């Protein structure tokens, strides 16, 4: 059966963009899908050779400008990569995805020329990885008020505290740390971002144990024990760190929506195939039951609708014309709809759906992260509702 998502993308994309999607899709089919079950059962992170293959394909440099050694692509490329890789594994997709949309992006948006020249070429080739240090044990949704602090010391700064949930920490060369620098300032102007090498004295990383979602993705806790950094480690302006982080999250949320839709696309194909093959009562397929058809149809409608919406927003993002609310909305809706429908898809498939080799349970579990990550959906609704409440 042809993939349903391919039918939509072929129609929605220009030829060159669809051809790029096909390259990543084929890589994902041939080099990721056959290994996933083994990686899961052996509790492995994405292996180094798979990361090296993605770097060879240029995936770590997709939206990085050519003058810094990247592919010179755009947000649409990033989202197409997300869709193609997340069809099999969100864990694999988020590895280059977070490296770019959360790691390299703040540097691209707010870095000085010297910072860009120092880091972007290696980031583009997968030789370095930046992680996004926003969340902390005591600060999740209330991210504007970090408990990690940075105090001035001579011409530099000293950083103290702990970040957690840092995606890609295992492979990271640097962490972009969001730290409190001016507690007396108004909300949103109290913090500064710093580029901190993971091998700086006083930086300690530990993989977070017991995570049962995104199982092949690295998620670390990083502590800073009086870490000294020079003045030029500041990313963006002093006391404007929250702006750096929230601006970065616009593209990040478009990427998270692509993960949700990649999972939904997989579930749709799996379920419609199974519904035709599973025979119950009178030697007939379960796909003849209208309630089963309803679930499949709802998945198909949601996939076409949200793909069209997401690709439209990527183009607007690339034109610099997208708002925070628009990015949050497509993330909230895609993650919510995909989560609801994948749970129903599992019900359509019955008991077999709970087996890891069937694939649906992986997507069901991973979809939780798309609802909570990069702003929990509940918290983001505070933002989305604002234009509706203006008088
Ligand atoms: C696998 C994974 C990877 C991650 N990667 C990164 C990363 O690379 N870098 C990084 O910085 N962070 C990362 N995160 C952290 C993620 O961004 C946070 O989990 C998220 O921001 C929510 O914070 P929290 O978990 O502390 O929840 P809390 O802020 O404690 O919120 C808990 C719940 O309270 C409710 N709630 C909170 N605020 C509101 C509100 N204003 N209105 C209504 N309800 C509300 C919601 O239901 C919310 O889910 C990752 C998380 C996961 C699970």
Q: Can you walk through the features of this model?
A:
The protein has 391 residues and is an alpha+beta fold. It has three domains: 4-124, Orthogonal Bundle (Butyryl-Coa Dehydrogenase, subunit A, domain 1), CATH 1.10.540.10; 130-240, Beta Barrel (Butyryl-CoA Dehydrogenase, subunit A, domain 2); 243-389, Butyryl-CoA Dehydrogenase, subunit A, domain 3. It is 53% helix and 14% strand. It is built from twelve helices and eight strands. The chain has helices spanning 4-12, 15-41, 48-56, 75-86, 90-110, 113-124, 241-277, 290-318, 324-349, 360-372, 377-384, 386-389; strands at residues 130-133, 149-153, 156-167, 174-180, 191-197, 203-207, 219-229, 234-235. A four-stranded mixed sheet has the order 1-4-5-8. A four-stranded antiparallel sheet has the order 2-3-7-6, with helices on one face. A hairpin with a 2-residue loop joins strand 2 (149-153) and strand 3 (156-167). It is globular. The mean pLDDT is 97. The site of flavin-adenine dinucleotide has 24 residues, from helix 5, strand 1, strand 3, helix 10 and helix 11.
């Amino acid at each position: 059966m042809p993939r349903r998502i391919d039918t939509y993308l072929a129609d929605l994309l220009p030829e060159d963009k669809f051809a790029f999607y096909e390259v990543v899709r084929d890589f994902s089919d041939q080099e990721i899908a056959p290994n996933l079950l083994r990686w899961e059962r052996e509790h492995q992170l994405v292996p180094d050779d798979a990361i090296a293959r993605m770097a060879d394909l240029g995936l770590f440099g997709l939206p990085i400008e050519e003058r810094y050694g990247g592919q010179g692509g755009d947000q649409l490329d990033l989202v197409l990569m997300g869709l193609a890789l997340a069809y099999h594994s969100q864990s694999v997709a988020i590895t280059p995805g977070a490296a770019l949309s959360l790691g390299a992006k703040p540097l691209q948006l707010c870095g000085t020329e010297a910072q860009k020249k120092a880091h972007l070429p290696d980031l583009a080739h997968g030789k370095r990885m930046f992680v996004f240090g926003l969340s902390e044990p005591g600060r999740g949704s209330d991210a504007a008020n970090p408990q990690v602090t940075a105090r001035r010391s001579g011409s530099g700064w000293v950083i103290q505290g702990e970040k957690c949930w840092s995606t890609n920490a295992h492979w990271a060369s640097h962490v972009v740390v969001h730290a409190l620098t001016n507690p007396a300032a108004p909300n949103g102007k109290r913090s500064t971002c710093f580029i901190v090498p993971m091998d700086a004295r006083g930086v300690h990383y530990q993989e977070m144990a017991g995570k049962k979602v995104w199982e092949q993705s690295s998620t670390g806790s990083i502590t800073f024990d009086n870490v000294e950094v020079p003045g030029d480690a500041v990313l963006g302006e002093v006391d404007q760190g929250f702006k750096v982080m929230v601006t970065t999250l616009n593209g990040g949320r478009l990427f998270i929506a692509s993960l949700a839709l990649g999972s939904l696309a997989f579930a749709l194909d799996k379920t419609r195939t199974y519904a035709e093959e599973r025979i119950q009562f009178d030697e007939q397929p379960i796909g003849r039951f209208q309630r089963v058809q309803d679930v499949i149809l709802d998945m198909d409608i949601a996939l076409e609708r949200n793909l069209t919406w997401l690709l439209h927003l990527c183009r607007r993002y690339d034109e610099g014309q997208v708002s925070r609310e628009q990015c949050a909305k497509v993330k909230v809706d895609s993650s919510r709809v995909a989560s609801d429908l994948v749970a129903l898809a599992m019900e359509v498939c019955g008991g077999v759906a709970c087996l890891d080799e069937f694939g649906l349970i992986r997507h069901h579990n991973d979809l939780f992260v798309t609802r909570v990550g990069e702003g929990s959906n509940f918290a983001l609704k505070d933002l989305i509702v604002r234009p509706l409440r203006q008088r």
